[in-house]
Amino acid sequence: MKTTTLALMVMGIVASATSQAAEIYNKDGNKLNLYGKVKAMHYISDDSSKDGDQTYVRFGFKGETQINDQLTGYGQWEAEFSGNKDESNSTTKTRYAFAGIKYANFGSFDYGRSLGALYDVEAWTDMFPEFGGESSARTDNFMTKRASGLATFRSTDFFGVVDGLNLTLQYQGKNESRDVSKQNGDGFGTALNYDFGGSDFQVGGAYTTSDRTDAQQLQARGEGDKADAWAAGVKYDANNVYIASMYSETRNMTPISGGFANKTQSFEAVVQYQFNFGLRPSLAYVQQKGKEIEGVGDADLMKYIDVGATYYFNKNMSAFVDYKINQLDSDNPLGINNDDIVALGMVYQF
C-alpha cells in the first residue's frame, strides 16, 4: 500500500512524543527544542477513584551543545501539571531531568531521572491510546520505568560496529527517603535489542538486579534481599502495521497490598493498524500473575482486554477512545478493583 504523507507523520508521532518539538534556538552548535502536549481526558468507570476528569499538561525541553567534532553534550527536562484539580490543590511532578555527553559512534552517558533499562523492552507494548505498559513497568519501581538516580550508558549499532544492535548498561543509586513501595537499593541493569541490520522486525531482552532496602524487607509480603527482573519482547513495525508482545518476570519487586510479590509473570501484546486517512485502531491484552504470595498463593494482579482507537486530524491534533475491559474476578484475594474503564479524550501536542 502506498503510504501517504499523513500516515508518515502519524507514525512519527507514535514513535516519539518529542518528534514535533519546536526549535527555539540553533546557533554555533547549540540547540534548544521545546515540546509539550495537553491531554484533555475523562474516565468513565464504576471505580470512584478513577471516574472523572483526568486532564493534564506536559511540557519540556531538549538541549544539545556541540563541544567538538566528536563530543556532544545534551540534557532534557519534562514536567507534568494536573488540569483536573482546583487551583489550590493542583500538582506538578518531574518526569525527566538528566544531562549527559555523547562521543561520536561510541555511545552516550547520562545521569539523572530517566528511563530504566527494563523499559527498553517494555516500551514496545506501551502503545495503547491511554492504558497499557503497566504490568511490570511501573514508575519509581527500581529500573522498570521512569526512575531517579540512573547512570546510563547507551550504544546504538554496538559502538558503530553492528548495524541495528543496541546496548544499554545502567546503574541506579540507593533511594530510601520515600514511600517504601518506591524505594530501591543500589542496582544494575542491562538491555540488548537487535533489528537484524535495519529490518522491520526487532527482538530484545533486558535484566535488572537491585538491593532491597531494610524497610522493604520488613514488609509482611516479599522476601529476599534482592529485587530482580527480566523481560523479552518482539516487535514488527512496517506497512502501517504495528505488532508487539512482551513477557517479563519479577522477584520481590512488584508492589502489592502488604508489601511485594515474591514473583510475578507478565504478558502484554498489542496490534494496531494505521489507516491513511488518520484512524489507528488498537487491540491488546495484558495479564500479570502473582506467584507464591504469602497467605494467598497464586493470584492475578492485572488482567484485561483493551480495545481503542485514535484519530489523527493532523500532526498536532488527535482524539481517542480506549476501553479497558477488566477480566479480574470480583472476589480476587487481594481486593484489587475489577471495574472496567473507558477513557475519552483529545490531545494537542507540539
From TrEMBL:
Its main location: membrane. Transmembrane segments: none annotated. SUPFAM superfamilies: Porins. It is found in: Cell outer membrane. Keywords: Cell outer membrane, Ion transport, Membrane, Porin, Signal, Stress response, Transmembrane, Transmembrane beta strand, Transport. The keyword Transport applies. InterPro entries: Gram-neg_bact_OMP, Gram_neg_porin_domain, Porin_dom_sf, Porin_gammaproteobac, Porin_Gram-ve, Porin_Gram-ve_CS. It is a multi-pass membrane protein. Pfam families: Porin_1. Residues 1-21 form the signal peptide. Homotrimer. Uptake of inorganic phosphate, phosphorylated compounds, and some other negatively charged solutes. Belongs to the Gram-negative porin family. This is Outer membrane porin PhoE. The gene is phoE.
